[in-house]
What we know:
CATH topology of the largest domain in chain A: L-amino peptidase D-ALA esterase/amidase
Number of domains of chain A: 2
Structural class of chain A: alpha+beta
Radius of gyration of chain A: 22 Å
CATH class of the largest domain in chain A: Alpha Beta
Distance between the termini of chain A: 39 Å
CATH superfamily of the largest domain in chain A: L-amino peptidase D-ALA esterase/amidase
Largest interface: A-B, 62 and 62 residues
Low-confidence stretches of chain A: 1-30, 214-220
Mean pLDDT of chain A: 87
Largest sheet of chain A: 9 strands, mixed
CATH architecture of the largest domain in chain A: 4-Layer Sandwich
Oligomer: homodimer
Number of strands of chain A: 18
Amino acid sequence: MNNVTEHNRKGVIPGGSEQIHSGGAVADHLTLPGLKEIPGGITAPKGFRAAGIHCGVKKSKRDLCLVVSDVPASAAVVLTTNRVQAAPVLVTREQMGRSRVFRAIVVNSGNANACTGDRGMEDAWAMVGAAASALNVGRDEVLVSSTGVIGQFLPIGTITEGIKKAAAFLSPEGGGAAAEAITTTDTFVKEHALEFDWDGTRVTMGGMAKGSGMIAPNMATMLAFVTTDAAVAPAVLHSALSRAADRSFNRISVDGDTSTNDMVAVLANGESGAEPFTEAAGPHYEAFYAALEEMLVTLSKMIVKDGEGATKFIEINVTGAADEASAVKAARAIANSNLVKTAINGEDANWGRILAAVGYSGVDFDPSKVEIFFGNVPILRRNYTIDFSEEEAKKILSRKEITITVCLHEGEGSASFWTCDLSKEYVAINANYRT
Amino acid sequence: MNNVTEHNRKGVIPGGSEQIHSGGAVADHLTLPGLKEIPGGITAPKGFRAAGIHCGVKKSKRDLCLVVSDVPASAAVVLTTNRVQAAPVLVTREQMGRSRVFRAIVVNSGNANACTGDRGMEDAWAMVGAAASALNVGRDEVLVSSTGVIGQFLPIGTITEGIKKAAAFLSPEGGGAAAEAITTTDTFVKEHALEFDWDGTRVTMGGMAKGSGMIAPNMATMLAFVTTDAAVAPAVLHSALSRAADRSFNRISVDGDTSTNDMVAVLANGESGAEPFTEAAGPHYEAFYAALEEMLVTLSKMIVKDGEGATKFIEINVTGAADEASAVKAARAIANSNLVKTAINGEDANWGRILAAVGYSGVDFDPSKVEIFFGNVPILRRNYTIDFSEEEAKKILSRKEITITVCLHEGEGSASFWTCDLSKEYVAINANYRT
């Protein structure tokens, strides 16, 4: 794990090192003093407790999670843009409209409470109510989230009983159990924590995520929860989250599908004692933003690495685009191309599919200026010059982690995007899931 | 094969027959007297000859095709929107800028002449020149097209020799050989012909197509050529082709990738003796348009049925959308969803994935009003009411051809879209193609 990684230089062609393309993981030209990874997850920051238990939605695995701040915390949330929104997404949106200060998050896995109509809404509110009463906080201080099968009603009695039980298990060491309790088809638990110095005060940030397909078959997707003991005003937290989510969760793709239940939430409770900040600018904000982006990019990459049937992790760097938006557009088209993803699966240096994907991305560029690299090996040079050793390309493509760099030579825009290959196993998992 | 198929009624829910959703195959409320399928393809209309030979681009299969009109014919062409455009696409665009009356089309398969820079342009012009000289027509009367591997130079000497040879084989019975010569990874030859009455005159239309993946690995995609002995002014022909291509080739998807070489061309030579028409309106135009749409939809469906690794043909009908554009958007999102395509591959009645795809399509709708049918079996009714027999659904999904209807209940817009399932074989074909 890098500390602060240097931003991808604009238009630069890969040189000596294969790892120079860290890919926009941190705001430009920013270094953050003492940023480092620490063990743990959501309960690493001061003043947070969590629990993850089995209550009975799933057969035997943990399926209910509580995250609680000892004091009221600023909250920011990003929700799915899918028009079909699960009941907990609608309830959380309503809660966020009422307040920006929260105490708790309650999450169940195994059932998404999506496409469940009025009864689904009642059930989501019942989860909020049960958590508020078990934790002795206000109903308007609880956020709710669900993930799992679409179109089935929650076993709400089981869940509200589970919430009471989970409250008894809350602990500052409960992060790991909580991270386990939000998983569905995930093959590993996704946690990350980091700390940094802030005018002499240690500030900590912890996170957990779940997801292994944009919609794992009927299983709703991508959740991420982040806690921090920094003191951040809600509006500033929202601004940082929007920007960081745009450069992390909005830059990954497993299969291009967007779920009905996606949610990223951040709670900031100020318990570190670090100086509060209230403006989305200045060195304090930029330092906090850098840490948050590092957190979300790390969690995003974990989700891609757990992509259904994935055998390879692919980082796509587009440089020299007219602007950042164009770079993202081109990178997304490459990342979503089944033909590119199957070629990588087959370890085939198929640059034609990459160039064709940029061609239909809607980005304006001159194809004859494009250069493509696998790792630091040039595959395509200007004027369609192809001059690479198949052997060298094969060596790069045989690795578990592959970096593809596309230089458009049109301007200064660059972006990174993360995806995985498309394997026969993906088809097998998704064709046979329900049956 | 149907004659004129009735247009999908707006907002109607499937009833007694499973085949009622013929899906926008013909302009609304139009019936065309005596429209019927006839044997043959590109040389079915009067005054067209064709040849398809093996010249040596491929190892042993036919790889060079000529289509010639005995007299100058009106021409209309639709070309790929990919920013990366093969040399023959650029040359054809230049030719069409100069004239709208053509005599011949020359096509090679096995090599796309794409991403080949200046030398590629010279080679494409050399093909035009060789055809003009072999056929004794003007250089500005020849269209050119290529399909096959990207990024390799044409064996241009082999091809120009081949063009001379092919000219000697031109025949009014050459349609079948020509259709074979434009294929690449296709598993069957795609030809279609039809005739209709026009104030007592028999008018004929013939067509051929190739394609079995939007970009079959490095192999450039989708070509279609149509001939007719109707007399149609170039501007009118262009207007009809744009509209019909939009409702056929722009409504199919195998893997969502758009090729560098896509081309649809129509030649109309007037040899039927039927009355010419010069306006894109009125009953003559509408009749001609209906025939052209029927031709292109039939060729489009053939391409989908030959989708790489496809085991099922899927027709997606979206009805009750706010307008036709919204219906197309929703249908395209369903058709391009890997999760929907793998579910159909697994014969799983997974309506949640279909609804979620509409949800992220960008179309405005109320999810609780949506109804989904497989064939004529309702799967999802209003207010998320799920009440279907898994057995009945399974029976429908076990067929080779599956119709999915999604009623949004928002307005009068409807559209059909055609796609295929996503199988392990697709991945195998595309992962292992080059190696």
